[in-house]
Task: structure prediction
Amino acid sequence: MALTLQDTLGIFAEKLASVYSPESMDLSSRDRHSSEPSSKSDAALLDDLKAHLPTALRCLYQRYGSVVYGVALKVLQSQPEAEDLTQEIFLSLWQRPIDPAHHDRLMRYLIVMT
Result:
């Protein structure tokens, strides 16, 4: 049975999502404060993103930017291209935020988009 590219990406995204789940990531780095959006859930940040609050995009980038960049770099093997693609992914998220009801699929969405 042959897998399509979409099936393969979905499987890859699920594997990465389990490794890079928000629960397993340290979101308490020294440059973050509890009053900043970083203490908000992904669903709350996606609500804020729909309202075009730049702090929501910044927090989502801080939370998931390294994962998107890492996947892009692994696939593209070019630092400048990976940086550009990472920027494009988050710009796309800003322009067309996903439904907050699908916050549990955010990591998969970002990886598949990458």
Summary: Confidence is low (pLDDT under 50) at residues 24-35.
